[in-house]
């Protein structure tokens, strides 16, 4: 992906020097060690819309409300290459989604993207890097610890800069769902169904975010022609590596479809591919799909 020299977003908030520290993480009045975090991660809440719910359950408490003070938001330093990449991809998602919303008679309000290290306060509770990138509907922000890109490459086996772009586009896909009112609707439904049904709903939310990432990739490539051979394959490979079945298998556990929250590798690839092929948001209705 030839992203250098393109316009960057102003909506990146750099909290990486904001402290946070190490050690245990306070959620629900309890400290969560690395074991619990690892379980939550393996449980498939990587890229989750709100992994804090799961962590809250695991720690036996409710996610903590946002109480911490925030300093003024500031931008990443201009010589920071990784931050420049994230800002460039974010900017392009803003352009693409603004166009699509406008064409459909609406308007798109961009999400902010927060770079952090370790832990950071969010409107969904304390965000932790071990949970992987996530979107918080409460403050409409995407949270990313850039260390996740190393995990993606070295531990999950998904290298490539476009694999990283897919991660950002997937999280922005959650923001698009929020803008469309889908997030609120799903949250309402979630409260009325069994845990297995709630997981099934979550899978449809996640596969839709994958499809929306594909829609972005389609329009992004059409206008910029900035993809190299192998870029789409890198995103497809990432989708494969973070499928629930692949994560469960690589954790040495039995594959339990009822526990899936994001969909299988094949499903994630299929929906990203569907969005990329047509570039049409209407092809991302995972809720109406008979088969995923
Ligand atoms: Zn997600």
TrEMBL record:
Record localization: Membrane
Main localisation: membrane
Domain of life: Bacteria
Region Disordered, annotated ranges: 1-26
Record Pfam families: Zn_peptidase
Record flagged with keyword Membrane: yes
Name by which UniProt lists this protein: Neutral zinc metallopeptidase
Source organism of this protein record: Variovorax ginsengisoli
């Amino acid at each position: 992906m030839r992203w250098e020299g393109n316009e960057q977003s102003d909506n990146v908030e750099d909290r990486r020097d904001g402290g946070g520290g190490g050690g245990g993480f306070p959620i629900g009045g309890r400290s969560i060690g690395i074991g619990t975090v690892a379980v939550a991660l393996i449980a498939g809440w990587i890229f989750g819309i709100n992994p804090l719910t799961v962590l809250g359950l695991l720690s036996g408490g409710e996610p903590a409300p946002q109480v911490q003070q925030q300093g003024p938001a500031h931008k990443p330093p201009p010589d920071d290459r990784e931050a420049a990449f994230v800002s460039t991809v974010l900017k392009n998602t803003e352009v693409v989604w603004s166009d699509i919303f406008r064409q459909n008679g609406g308007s798109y309000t961009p999400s902010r993207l927060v770079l952090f290290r370790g832990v950071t306060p969010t409107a969904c509770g304390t965000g932790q890097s071990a949970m992987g990138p996530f979107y918080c509907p409460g403050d409409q922000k995407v949270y990313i610890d850039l260390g996740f890109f190393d995990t993606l490459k070295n531990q999950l086996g998904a290298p490539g800069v476009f694999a990283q772009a897919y991660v950002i586009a997937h999280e922005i896909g959650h923001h698009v769902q929020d803008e469309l009112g889908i997030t609120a609707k799903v949250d309402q439904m979630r409260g009325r169904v069994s845990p297995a049904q709630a997981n099934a709903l979550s899978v449809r939310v996640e596969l839709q975010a994958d499809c929306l990432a594909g829609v972005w990739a389609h329009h992004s490539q059409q206008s910029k022609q900035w993809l190299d051979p192998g870029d789409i394959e890198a995103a497809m490979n990432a989708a494969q590596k973070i499928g629930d079945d692949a994560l469960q298998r690589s954790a040495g556990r039995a594959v339990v479809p009822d526990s899936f929250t994001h969909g299988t590798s094949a499903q994630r690839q299929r929906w990203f591919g569907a969005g990329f092929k047509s570039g049409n948001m209407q092809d991302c209705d995972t809720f109406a799909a008979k088969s995923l």
